[in-house]
Amino acid sequence: MQTSSDRHEYPAHWEADVVLRDGGTARVRPITVDDADRLVSFYEQVSDESKYYRFFAPYPRLSAKDVHRFTHHDFVDRVGLAATVGGEFIATVRYDRISADGRAASAPADEAEVAFLVQDAHQGRGVASALLEHIAAVARERDIRRFAAEVLPANNKMIKVFTDAGYTQKRSFEDGVVRLEFDLEPTDRSLAVQRAREQRAEARSVRRLLVPGSVAVVGVGRSPGGVGRSVLDNIRDAGFTGGLYAVNKAFPEEQKDLDGVLAYRSVRDIEGPVDLVVVAVPVEHVPEVVTECGEHGVQGLVVVTAGYAESGPEGRERQRELVRHARTYGMRIIGPNAFGVINTAADVRLNASLAPEMPRPGRIGLFAQSGAIGIALLSRLHRRGGGVTGVTGVSTFVSSGNRADVSGNDVLQYWYDDPDTDVALMYLESIGNPRKFTRLARRTAAAKPLVVVQGAGSAPQGHAVRATRLPHATVSALLRQAGVIRVETITELVDTGLLLARQPLPGGPRVAIVGNSESLGLLTYDACLSEGLRPSPPVDLTTAATAADFHRALSGALADDSCDAVVVTAIPAVGEGPAEDAALAEALRSAAAAAPGKPVLVVHVELGGLAEALSAAMSTAPQAASKREDPRLPAERPSTAEAEQAVTGVPASEGGGLIPAFPAAERAVRALAEAVKYAQWRREATDPGRVPEFEDIDEKGAAGLIGGLLARGQGLTLGVDETCDLLGKYGVDVHRALPAPTPDTAAEAARALGYPVALKATAPHLRHRADLGGVRLDLADEEQLRRAYAELGELFGKPEELRPVVQRMAPRGVDTVVRAVIDPAAGAVLSFGLAGAASQLLGDTAHRLIPVTDREAGSLIRSIRTAPLLFGWRGSTPVDTPALEELLLRVSRLVDDHPEVVAVTLEPVVVAAHGLSVLGASVRLAPPPARDDLGPRTLPVY
Question: What is the C-alpha separation between 310 and 308, in angstroms, rounded?
């Protein structure tokens, strides 16, 4: 540790785990006096060329003075960070604060010289880029605003590290050296660069787990049964294309194989690399296995062993130590207590899970925190009969268990540019980092559908993440804003996923309904109305309809320009058999293929034959049935494209062919409604709008006012005058309310404001509760005012209990509420709803993440259920919604520009036919919560 002469204590909060470009991990931490031997050892492994680039001269070894200088830091003016793997240095970076003339300096000098050294074996892994992010964050914390670096012109790699970072910079050439100077304030480009690197690194870290070249299962029993043996059998039976090894230290030394799989007593004994290890040993033996794997260079672990955070405090500490231990060696973990991972790609065929059957290859990616839910999802997608048919298959599956390391965010990063995944389905018991998840979800949803069932659970035990204070419903609303298709049940998750996987997105909400049952058609029609769709009257083909009649009706509906999607309803006719079912399925499929731009769904009632026919292959692929008899036989596994053609009847490249069939109209229509909403979001996402500039905003004046107010304390609710002043700097005019502790002061206030006025009781139990009778409006003169004052006293008590105020009357309109709050996990959120008990009781409030664009402000107003009251419902006068949108945008700008404004409430905001009036306002200031998304890339802390 640092000596007592150092100016600052060891900054433990600078320690972080990072994912590197190749998917491995490294530990970033401050360098201390205890690192002298590590530094010398590290330097000895650096090539002479790299040393020359660092010191501009031959520098074969470090002197004792050098070692002292590079390990003794005050953590303010001199800081050194190291990236470590296995406890040893692989790279270092340091800065020294300098004055304008380049000499060593202290604060208030705000420039520092920065230099890197990366071990040659680890160059090209993105270590320097990660270290630059972290040393820049440290420098900003120490009030350093600018870095300078001198680099030899031949050192192209290091020049590229600086120039690619995205910071605003200047470049000069002098005395044979390139001098780079760059500001450390994050820019849009630097954040974009950082997030692009984050996506590539985290995606590759998951790819290392899902596309391993070799797998070892540790904890394999010698006899059938048991977790380890089951996983080994599943990997082997799925036809894994890479190397497979069975490991158990109890194996006799002479045992070389187990049922045809190479057997070893330790991972260390395996010749050649091992990419992935499945750990299935008792919990007390896991640390030993992790050490063996780390020393052998294993890239990742799937820990199916239980007994961690789910078992109590002792288990939580074991879990934290497991993650720390694995990351020491650069390994990532799925689990512990995981169900496993699956990759159905033809060149991988990995089933490293407890699922006894390999799912059918397909285009759906699955993520589940719960093993039980994972089993249910795989089962529903794999089986051909039952609730939903027209089954498509799975590309990849991850069940994360306790989610100690690899999370849904990591898997989203992988799916984003995975060419084998068209639809992502996720079951999330919790969202540990809502801010990051919504950012990743928005980007993913712009490219492919993301369907989520969100539980109401808390963060997994053992996680040190900020908990959101937002209600579950609010988080769900924010997910929808990010393009997430948010459903309530596992059944809806599968229904929606199957529809999106093999049918095109609808162009709008207009639905045609054709079928041979009037009653089933009407049920479908009613379901469409309930889901906000616009159905045409059902076309009844009667129970005598033939396959040709269905073909003709479906073709006609698809050709109609006033139709965006078609729901076909079918009931069995007496005496129908497999031949009739196959004929109907072929008729529907051929009609749909002729108009591939519109989705088609089938609602069937007890029609097993049709269900099978819709999901079976066409006669052009008769070999498919034999290939699917036992999906576990590796020799019979078709390629991904062949498997899709066998199921859909068309080549994978030609798009849809499966027509999903549902056993109930409500399920089909609900899935279609989600597809309609998602398609609308995709169209709007291409033009998200802009955050407007307002010339009358005084951002600098607001900052000065906030700084002065916060100097009084760490957090405070502003008084009336301060609230009005701050909001006024952003163009928000608040109608002032004057206190009226006596009838005489009330009359005096009314004279100052001008009649007519309102008299309000502002006691907490009466505030904003006009329904209780604590408000008197349109008081035209002093006589009416004094009479109203007396009535309030008779009803509710003495003035000191009422806290009455007098306020100038505002034009009549619709009472609304505008709120903004900064949540430590989700970020800044803007909310809108109508005022009153009814809206509160029904939870009729809409939410958007700040900053809000002009398009989002318009959609925010229109997304509440009571929005018609703003637009002339039942002949009433429409109110000035453009003025309301402007108010929302101004509040959004205030909170976005000044994160110290942690809460704003405007209630009520009376929106009239022309203009609006803010009659009540409150503002709370506090030091803003730290923002992880603006800092350097890090993995979650344990």
Answer: 5
